[in-house]
Amino acid sequence: MSIAIQISPNSSLFVKDPQSTETGREMLRSSVALMQELGFEKFTFRKLANKIGISEITVYRYFENKHKLLLYLLSWYWEWVKYSIVFNTQNIEEGDKKLRIAIRTIIASNKRNSLVEYIDEEKLYGLVVEESVKAYHTKDVDAENKEGLFLTLKSLKSELAKIILEVNPDYPFSNSLASTILEMSLRIRFFAEHLPSMSDIKNSDEIDEQLYLFIDQLATTALR
Predict the structure, then answer these.
(1) pLDDT (tens digit, 0 to 9) for every residue of the chain, 224 residues total?
(2) Which H/E stretch holds residue 188?
(3) Where are the domains of the chain?
(4) What is the DSSP letter of 13?
(5) Which among 132, 109, 127 has a CA at the least distance from the CA of 34?
(6) Are 27 and 62 in contact (CB under 8 A)?
(7) pTM
(8) What would be the CATH architecture of the domain defined by 66-223?
């Protein structure tokens, strides 16, 4: 059973929406695993096609290039996290409590949800940690932004910024703090896993809780 959530990345990202066919959904499922395994640089449509057992040209019927496929996957992740924040904070009145739930939700987005059939959130989260900066640290970022290719990321940021203002309506840097929380949840985990001297947080079974304590302290101090 699929979860009732409509995730609609910008139509400029795809030629044919992969969520509309079983072949397309299998491409999403397999591309997450293969891109995480090989890395974005070594990932190719030919390798994806071979993994699924389809022709390479079939992949191109859905996506113009692998950069737009990566952006599509990231857009799915950003929208999923926003949905989860809204769902988990509904009926919560206290801004402080709502923000803490939102932070835990962001960090817990690496957990598999069996109700979503064709996206493995755990593997997708690993891909986001490893490869997300490659989506917008490019020379084309301004043009792609004008096309609206980052609308789901900005929508997630806005949802978090709205909660921040519920904690402190006079805080002047709500967008910056929201962006920092989102980025730190990924970058500090990356450092812990690959460049441990860059972080006090250790790559262990307690990494999620350590990340939460760090980001919660960061937000609480800023909003005090």
Answers:
(1) 344 456 778 889 999 999 999 999 999 999 999 999 999 999 999 999 999 999 999 999 999 999 999 999 999 999 999 999 999 999 999 999 999 999 999 998 877 665 567 788 888 999 999 999 999 999 999 999 999 999 999 999 999 999 999 999 999 999 999 999 999 999 999 999 999 999 999 988 899 999 999 999 999 999 98
(2) helix 174-194
(3) 66-223
(4) G
(5) 127
(6) yes
(7) 0.92
(8) Orthogonal Bundle (1.10)
